[in-house]
TrEMBL record:
Enzyme Commission number(s) from the entry: 2.3.1.21
UniProt family annotation: Belongs to the carnitine/choline acetyltransferase family.
Biological processes, Gene Ontology terms: carnitine metabolic process; fatty acid beta-oxidation; long-chain fatty acid transport
Protein name: Carnitine O-palmitoyltransferase 1, muscle isoform
Membrane topology label: Multi-pass membrane protein
An example molecular function term from Gene Ontology annotations: carnitine O-palmitoyltransferase activity
Lineage: Eukaryota, Metazoa, Chordata, Craniata, Vertebrata
PROSITE patterns xrefs: ACYLTRANSF_C_1
Organism: Cyprinus carpio (Common carp)
Length: 698
């Protein structure tokens, strides 16, 4: 191939006079420039690593401390109270180490130790300040004097220009709730779902657990919380994601859509080029730690550890599992065995994919929101979630999908991060694509073509017939799963966040209560409801569950269905239910949730071989209504007041329970809420129920 010859840096021929070595200057130039670029990256990473390592101080502050100590010595003042002299006596005397050199070096060593102690003290104080969460429970628009003082201190100690990982060492650890609090909150959460007899039985089982073995399990869990960075996250990743035997397509991976109304260009190749370019820009900032950390109120930092595995990461299937190995995973592992260990060419191709920054699919279909086609969002969602089952690399950290008409989307593997993390990158990419890179009038990328870039290389595969049979079987299983997924996208624009806030209500609480009412009108009963909340105010925090079906919400729903109740009574019950929901959400965010604590107690019980009927019951309860809010405007790069058409469509996920619903929603601007609803055709409980489920007047 001509491309291969151009890539060779040198050629040689054997002559009677010896070997004639011919070097290509052009290729050597590129090698040299690549080396320079590599060393520049290392230098920048080293610099930013130092800046992060000494935060909230700065390297220049070390020089200030050294100068201050040296100045006091010349003034014949000893601020070290004799420590400099002790250091001096321990240093050897030689012709290269005079007495004066000893004195200067001792002062520098003391100043460095003092400076490091100061850094640790600042971090300890900042960590103590960030452990205070009283501010989150205060009424919206009202702030106590103590909270104002607290915010001022946090702002003072946070420095001027923190990097992405600057706050990591200062974030508090996730606290372990007390057994009593968790049990009481759990019993409160299941009360509206159980009749009196069932509740008494659950109460008895819970109280037995509280006596034994809960104290023993709690003791070990607290020991882990003191030792580990986060007592939940590593077990959550391992047992919920990595050890799960269900196929991750549909059951775990989630998707994110493009801008709702805008397609910057209809040229697939141009859109792909700009998006890839923007992603690599983001990756460069991420590798250097130059992204600004996300902060609540613009001051309180969120944990950034999930960003570390965004690029060049792949989930590798394995055989470490329970007793029930799902067929598709067994087949996948067998496939990998054939392809990876027996064939060198397959090993090279797999390694190229697994080590790549991300996976790109140039899809031959056309998708996107079409106001004239009520099913357009539904088909768009299904395509992003599972595609044709063979045109997405579901194990990759994320797959970028670019459609024939220029529309795009992302399919994300869930184990490495949660939706706000990929959403952060997605917001940066869309803003960069539309407002910085842009396109020509004909829809092409701007700028000149870089002809020195290496051409793409086709990956080679050598797949034996036995392996092809296994792959075909896996495909049929995957196709069955994909075909079973039902989706519906709904754009609700009768009102939005603006009106809800005018009613002095949390938009999230309002939507959750509307979902409870819709589900009750659909099923005639209540169900255990999951809402995802984040715990990123703690180091390596991920998520916690908010149990949205409460005694207060069910009372409101029943009042809405009872014609005898007045509007005033309904409003009173609504406010009470909304306040309850908001309080539970705040408790979950501040480490006082229910489900992660019970999950970890269950893991400890399994490790200790302790049988707990209570924990078995809790962990086996199905979430028939699983909900999540997609965050937007984390970076505020797109002014949606100025550019109202440049709003995201959000994203979604598959149903968690076979007979339940998955509902993802995004509050867009002031007057739009987008819903992504999923279920399974195979369930008689949900098939064809989208109209009755969602289109209700509350």
């Amino acid at each position: 191939m001509a491309e291969a010859h151009q890539a060779v840096a040198f050629q040689f021929t054997v002559t009677p006079d010896g070997i004639d070595l011919q070097l290509s200057r052009e290729v050597l130039k590129h090698i040299y420039l690549s080396g320079v670029t590599s060393w520049k990256k290392r230098a920048i990473r080293f610099k930013n690593g130092v800046l992060t390592g000494v935060y909230p101080a700065s390297p220049s502050s070390w020089l200030i401390v050294v100068i201050a100590i040296m100045s006091t010595m010349y003034a014949r003042i000893d601020p070290s109270m004799g420590m400099i002299d002790r250091i001096k006596t321990s240093l050897p005397v030689s012709e290269f180490m005079t007495v004066q050199t000893q004195t200067v070096l001792s002062a520098i060593l003391f100043a460095t130790g003092l400076w490091l102690s100061f850094i640790f003290l600042l971090r300890y104080i900042l960590k103590a300040l960030l452990s205070y969460h009283g501010w989150i429970f205060e009424s919206h628009g009202k702030m106590s004097f103590s909270t104002k003082v607290w915010l001022s201190l946090v702002k003072l100690l946070s420095g001027r220009r923190p990097l992405l990982y600057s706050f990591q060492a200062s974030l508090p650890h996730l606290p372990v709730p007390s057994i009593d609090d968790t049990i009481n909150r759990y019993l409160e959460s299941v009360r509206p779902l159980l009749d009196d007899e069932q509740y008494k039985q659950m109460e008895s089982v819970a109280n037995d657990f509280k006596k034994d073995p809960a104290p023993k399990l709690q003791k070990h869990l607290k020991l882990k919380s003191w030792w580990a960075t986060n007592y939940v996250s590593d077990w959550w990743e391992e047992y919920i994601y990595l050890r799960g035997r269900d196929p991750i397509m549909v059951n775990s991976n989630f998707y994110t859509m493009d801008l709702l109304y805008v397609i910057p260009t209809h040229r697939q190749a141009s859109r792909a080029a700009n998006i890839v370019h923007a992603m690599l820009q983001y990756r460069r900032k991420l590798e250097r730690g130059e992204l600004t950390p996300l902060r609540a109120l613009g001051i309180v930092p969120m944990c950034s550890f999930q960003y570390e595995r965004m690029f060049n990461t792949t989930r590798i299937p394995g055989i470490e599992t329970g007793n029930d190995i799902f067929p598709i995973f067994s087949a996948l592992y067998t496939t990998y065995s054939f392809m990876y260990f027996n064939e060198g060419v397959n090993r090279a191709s797999l390694e190229a994919i697994e080590t790549a920054a991300f996976f790109l699919t140039l899809d031959d279909e056309t998708h996107g929101y079409d106001p004239e086609n009520i099913r357009s969002l539904d088909l768009y969602a299904k395509s992003l979630l599972h595609g044709k089952c063979y045109d997405r690399w579901f194990d990759k950290s994320f797959t970028l999908i670019v459609y024939k008409n220029g529309k795009i989307g992302v399919n994300t593997e869930h184990s490495w991060a949660d939706s706000p993390i990929i959403g952060h990158m997605w917001e940066y990419v869309l803003a960069t694509d539309c407002f910085h890179l842009g396109y020509t009038a004909e829809g092409h990328c701007k700028g000149d073509i870089n002809k020195s870039l290496a051409p793409p290389t086709r990956l080679q595969w050598d797949i034996p017939k036995a392996c092809q049979v296994i792959i075909e079987g896996s495909y049929m299983i995957a196709k069955g799963i994909a075909d079973d997924v039902d989706f519906h996208g709904c754009l609700f624009n009768e009102f939005g966040k603006s009106l809800i806030k005018k009613c002095r209500t949390s938009p999230d609480a309002f939507i959750q209560l509307a979902l409870q009412l819709a589900h009750y009108r659909d099923k005639g009963e209540f169900c255990l409801t999951y809402e995802s909340s984040m715990t990123r105010m703690f180091r390596e925090g991920r998520t916690e569950t908010v149990r949205s079906c409460t005694c207060e919400s069910t009372a409101f729903v029943k009042a809405m269905e009872d014609e005898r109740t007045t509007v005033r009574q309904r409003l009173a019950l609504f406010k009470k239910a909304a306040d309850k929901h908001q309080n539970m959400y705040r408790l979950a965010m501040t480490g006082a949730g229910i489900d992660r604590h019970l999950f970890c107690l269950y893991i400890v019980s399994k490790v200790m071989d302790i049988d707990s009927p209570f924990l078995k019951q809790v962990l086996s309860e199905p979430w028939r209504l699983s909900t999540s809010q997609t965050p937007q405007q984390q970076l505020n790069l797109i002014d949606i007041q100025k550019f109202p058409k440049y709003v995201g469509a959000g994203g979604g996920f598959g149903p968690v329970a076979d007979d339940g619903y998955g509902v993802s929603y995004i509050i867009v601007g002031e007057d739009l809420i987008t819903f992504h609803i999923s279920s399974k055709f195979s369930s008689p409980e949900t098939v064809g129920q989208f109209q009755t489920f969602f289109f209700v007047k509350t």
